[in-house]
Amino acid sequence: MSELTDLTIADARDGLKKKSFSARELADAHIKAIEKGRALNAFVTETPDLARKMALESDRRIAAGEARPLEGLPLGIKDLFCTKEVLTTAGSHILDGFKPPYESTVTRNLWDAGAVMLGKLNMDEFAMGSSNETSYYGPVTNPWRRKGANTKLVPGGSSGGSAAAVAARMVLGATGTDTGGSIRQPAAVTGIAGIKPTYGRCSRWGIVAFASSLDQAGPMARTVRDCAIMLKAMASHDPMDSTSVNVRVPDYERAMTGEVRGLRVGIPKEYRIDGMPAEIEALWQKGIQWLKDAGAQIVDVSLPHTKYALPAYYIVAPAEASSNLARYDGVRYGLRVPGKDIISMYENTRAAGFGREVQRRILIGTYVLSAGYYDAYYIKAQKLRTLIAQDFDQAFEKVDVLLTPTAPGPAFGIGEKTDDPISMYLNDVFTVTVNLAGLPGISVPAGLNNEGLPLGLQLIGKAFDESTLFRVGEVIERSAGPTPRPGTWWEV
């Protein structure tokens, strides 16, 4: 039954329709893969009994001719999404034992579409990180390794558990969240596809907040088409979320015509940063040539405020985090460390419950919002954010989509950058602009480097034009050829 785990979402959907196998068989194959792959530490919580129960209901619906769009497809859920009566930790000690009495809108949409839940996936604590090393439950390991080396590599972050589980064939697809690149960057370094939709496309209700004006849920899967299938089910207008936008959700899969002739593809010169590895520039040139060969028109564009994006992001995001994380005090849910009075209980709980990176960002955020510094830092960062959005508006007057690298390099070793937060933050240099402007961005697997590690290319689109990203992304994916399966060194 192991071959069932090699199916794409599209293939598994078709196989279930043809009754080539059952939803229960599909779920069991993935449950077995999860059990064999625990060395990767991709899951915080496994839910095999729930998966089998949901799969049996899917088999009943399929037999009755009542199949829904994702009927019987087993998925993993990033542990930032609240799942009713299932442990939800956000990768943090401070949420120990928290089992929400409600379901997030995105996961409810998936279950209503017939998907099956395999469990909750590991992540950087409160989504703060670029390597999945800040989780209270330990780092996730990338299933890929460098040629001839045994160094354990990071899977990117913060959705590293989602990326590793998809790449290792433990799940058909997974949910992720993206605040500054946390879907696209891990997708790139694990050889899968992942899209951050337009801000407001997917409801944020029931997702543990990091930075409310930046966070956005999205799908991660092995192919661009699979991401399109998932996003159609995940996206919706939600009255429970004031930032949810009431616009029609297209049939993304139908929009994937494979035709890009005459499409104008912008190449932003500011993304050629100092010290960028030659292999990333070479990959970018390959992507440009692939789209040229497919009939697209290549246009050079300028995004002049790009150089300010990373510092602006690391003011806005921590500021919003410091506000959002104030609710974790040991009073209502999660960890509680007693003290001599309520103030000391707050202090003890937050000191024990939050990890080092979360504490660092809370301190930075509180500082930039404090009296005397609010105007100097936070207001300036918000003004820069407006200028960055205006850069994109002007570029999209000339082009239909932008092509850039996703990450400045391949996966690095676990522990190699943990003592250098600035170097770690630079992993988001190509992705944070998209979040600051609220635009959609997709990472597409585009081949392997000379060490045998995956690399990705990023496409950035106009607001609510995910359809074009899927259409162009599939052309790049087809030109690059299928990403090989990583080795199985982690299996027991």
Could you state the oligomeric state of the chains shown?
Answer: single chain
CATH-level-4 superfamily name? Amidase signature (AS) domain
Q: What sort of overall outline do the alpha carbons produce when their principal axes are compared?
A: globular
Radius of gyration equals 21 Å
Helicity range: 25-40%
Distance between the terminal alpha carbons, to the nearest Å?
17 Å
Low-confidence stretches: none
Q: Order of strands across the widest beta sheet?
A: 1-3-2-4-6-5-10-11-9-7-8
| Sheet with most strands | 11 strands, mixed
- Strand runs, count: 11
CATH class: Alpha Beta
Identify the CATH architecture.
Alpha-Beta Complex
* CATH fold topology: Amidase signature (AS) enzymes
* H-E order: HHEHEHEHEHEEHEHEHHHHEHHEEH
Short description:
36% of the residues lie in helices and 13% in strands. Strand 2 (74-78), helix 4 (105-112) and strand 3 form a beta-alpha-beta unit.
What does this structure look like?
The longest helix has 22 residues. Helix 4 links the parallel strand 2 and strand 3. With 492 residues, the chain is of the alpha/beta class. Helices cover 36% and strands 13% of the residues. It is globular. It starts with 8 loop residues before the first helix and ends in a 12-residue tail after the last helix. The chain has a single domain, classed as Amidase signature (AS) domain (Amidase signature (AS) enzymes, Alpha-Beta Complex), CATH 3.90.1300.10.
Task: List key phrases describing it.
492 residues; alpha/beta; Amidase signature (AS) enzymes; eleven-stranded mixed beta sheet; 15 helices; globular
